[in-house]
Amino acid sequence: MPTRPFIRRSVPALLLAVLMASCAAPPKAPPPPPPPPQVPTVSLSPQVVQAASAYRYYMTRSASITPDFADGDGIARAVQMGAAYEPTQMVRGAIAYAAVVALQDKAFVDNVRVYARDPAQRREVINELLKNPAYVAGMPDAPSAAGLVIANLGSDSQRLYETGKAVKQSAYDIQKQPWSKADISGREARLAAAKSVSVTAMAGDLAETARLQQNSMALPDASVSAPPASPPYTPTVTRGLAIAALAVLGEARDSDMATINGLMSEPNIGGCMGSAKLNLYQCLAVARPHYEDAFCLGQHALMDTGRCMIRASGLTEPYEARFVPDASSINKGMGKKPPVRKRPARKAT
To answer: What are the backbone angles phi and psi of residue 153, rounded to the nearest 5°?
Structure first.
């Protein structure tokens, strides 16, 4: 039987093959899926925070000026305080502060963060914001964040304006005191000093900077609330919201300041503040007694600047009579127009 030896030889070989197969390494498991893309943390450049702090420093400090002047030195110090802002820096600071305030709105931040989960969508939204900041107005809960911004910018501006009205009124009230009618000494130096502080960069208060830095991390403040505001918004509010959205998308860090700087400008409000400064200089140039300096401070340094910022927030500007007296007219009828002289009646011929 020729086939049996072959079968006997084949059985051990099969057993050996099975044994070797059982000792072989098990097949490798498929690799795990890649982790989802990391959502960037909310990050706002310290440069933006510092600009916001400088703006707040001026607005808070100038609004604290009291009209109960007792001497010319007190008026002189107040003039230097009210003149101490550079228009371009003030506009940058207002937009920066708007961005910090917008980051206090949790609903707005959470909705913008949704766009950050998909890298392609995140890049698309960033490009749209940089191309047209008004794109932010269509984002969910933008009206809620805009309401916060308008309320905060508007309340600061209104306080500054009301302070200016009180100081302007004091220009008339203190005329009953003899010292207020004395001529200002060193008028040219006083004007030069006002111009000097007007071009000097402001710095913020350290405590305020620290507070704003914490707020810029999108840590909600329960004490901050305001009703939503529907678009359209002013460029100042719009650009503040856009920078806040970019901060949520991780695109407002120090390395991004080249693009962020382009959003921190607004020529209309900058021009408004520039005009206020020119009016202040002209007023100080012709002012002679101390009470006229108080008028210049109240009308042009405080009221005019406050009006510019009220306009920037989008609130209704306060009403003022069309005829605004200058410093030289305070002593001539308290700013009233001279009466019209009647022509004598013609004699009958």
So the answer is: -65, -45
